[in-house]
Amino acid sequence: MRHGRLMLLAALVAVLAGACTSGRHGAAPAPSGEGAPQALPTPVGAAAAAFPLDQFMMRPAQANDLDTVVKRLTRACLLSRGEDWRGGQRNEFDLLRHRAHRFGLDDELLAASVGYHWDDVPGTPAPRGLDDCAGQAYQALGWAPDEFRWLGQLAEQTVEQTYADPRAATVTRRWSECMGRAGFRYAAPLDAEADPRWWRDEQAGTAEKQTAVADTRCKTQVRFAEQLSGVLAEKQVRAVRDNARRLEAFRRMATAAATKADALRGDHRSPQPGGSVKVVPPGMWRTEHTSA
């Protein structure tokens, strides 16, 4: 799954992000008036900063509840047809997963540990009736999957536009020169991440980790994320302005679906290490322990 994403990113850049990670959701101000966003704070430079489109994405707790209930309903439907399905580890409503790495891998410790394999999640076999049963689950919650995909694509487009901006070309060239001095020949970070040598194996080898570490160090040296964050904010302000009505409709739909999921879930406890449990507020399940 990660490999397929990288192949797509060779042409543009994905900007999905981590609802079931430990990172907190940062909401930007809602638009005021039709088609006109309020003044938005300029990102401080970190790739994980809040950007204009983030305000329309679900909070982590909402995404967790929705993911859990959809999988439960889907599994119940499949069991009624004699098919068993356990779901899988990935949160399917996760538009913020890659928020900390909007412009490629940006964590030296992570690079040294797993290279570019930082987001690999094993896939699960899909039973024949999965699409139909998932569709019934979506309908029960009032969830519109096409609109969810559209929001992800809109976010991707703004990053594509960012990389096409002349300001991005300048900082990318500086990154490439830094990598060259370290002994690695890549024109852009995506070239390093998508190097086919890395994706022949399920885990990162020594060469991949060394490349990834050099990648993150060069990004830090040339202030890669900081330089691109301002450009991305500009592109997303325009995207919010041009799509304000549809974005607001998505937010209403997502909030209503998450509210239904919160009510249907019903298990107000979250498992803790060692087998103990703690009571958690409604809507906060699985924000710390995603296997709940």
Structure description:
This protein has 10 helices and 2 strands; from the N terminus they run H-H-H-H-H-H-H-H-H-H-E-E. By secondary structure, it is an all-alpha fold. The protein has one domain (2-16, 49-279). Strands 1-2 form a two-stranded antiparallel sheet. Helix 2 crosses helix 10, helix 3 (108-114) packs antiparallel against helix 8 (206-222) and helix 6 runs antiparallel to helix 9.
The best one-word shape is globular
Helicity, in percent? 40-55%
What composes the largest sheet? Answer: 2 strands, antiparallel
Number of strands: 2
Oligomer: single chain
Strand order of the largest sheet: 1-2
Observed structural traits:
disordered C terminus; 292 residues; globular; two-stranded antiparallel ribbon; 10 helices; single chain; mainly alpha; 2% strand
List strands and helices in order, with pairings.
Layout: H1 2-9, H2 60-80, H3 108-114, H4 130-141, H5 145-164, H6 166-181, H7 189-193, H8 206-222, H9 224-242, H10 244-265, E1 269-271, E2 277-279
Antiparallel strand pairs: 1-2
